[in-house]
Inverse folding.
């Protein structure tokens, strides 16, 4: 279960719409316990993919280090990663899975014709061979 | 001793420490010391064949060790190692 606070959710939507029709990406900062993850801050990040970004994204490791540092300073954790699928449903693609990491929730936003359509969150396994969908709740 | 910065999702396995100083003359030795001291970290960093998982990137100070001497990269007092997961993807190729 991942729950996203209103301000963080709005940041995610704004970033996904602003980068449309390219994919956006970013980090989700919050807390985690046995009940799930709770996101209080969303940090938009640069899509570092060196090629057409309509169907691809890549995080910049330098930015990842900076976001980790920020999370530690705030007493939070990086608990998730988000990215968008422009004009496409919010599934976890083979490419998403093969380039994922089991430490995080992966929230995918479907943006169709520049507007938010729906979102899903996934938990990839260690071997990057499967990802379970987890309940996603966001405050609007 | 070199210092390893622990990413936030892995802190529960290092007694919530965000950085750990460990002995070792190269990256591999330091990571070995890390996963010996904190055994639960091992499955997060290494696969069953004892190799670093494909999504685990290690940075020595600001440099990716893949472009240095990989796990044989020498480390010295005051160096900082960071564990940074490699993350990418995109809408292509639905499962």
């Amino acid at each position: 279960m991942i729950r996203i606070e209103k301000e963080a959710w709005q940041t995610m939507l704004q970033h996904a719409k602003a980068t449309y029709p390219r994919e956006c990406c970013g980090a989700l900062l919050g807390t985690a316990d046995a009940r799930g993850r709770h996101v209080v801050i969303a940090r938009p990040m640069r899509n570092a993919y060196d090629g057409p970004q309509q169907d691809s994204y890549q995080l910049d490791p330098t930015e990842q280090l900076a976001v980790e540092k920020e999370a530690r300073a705030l007493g939070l954790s990086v608990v998730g990663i988000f990215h968008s699928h422009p004009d496409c449903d919010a599934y976890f693609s083979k490419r998403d899975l093969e380039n994922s990491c089991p430490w995080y929730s992966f929230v995918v936003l479907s943006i169709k014709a520049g507007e938010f359509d729906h979102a899903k969150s996934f938990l990839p396994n260690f071997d990057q061979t499967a990802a379970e969908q987890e309940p996603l709740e966001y405050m609007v | 001793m070199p210092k390893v910065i622990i990413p936030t999702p892995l802190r529960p396995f290092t007694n919530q420490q965000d950085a750990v100083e460990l002995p070792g003359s190269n990256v591999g030795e330091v990571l070995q010391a890390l996963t010996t001291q904190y055994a639960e970290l091992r499955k997060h960093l290494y696969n069953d064949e004892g190799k670093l998982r494909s999504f685990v990137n290690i940075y020595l100070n600001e440099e990716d060790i893949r472009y240095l001497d990989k796990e044989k990269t020498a480390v010295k007092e005051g160096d900082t190692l960071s564990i940074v997961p490699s993350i990418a993807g995109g809408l292509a190729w639905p499962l």
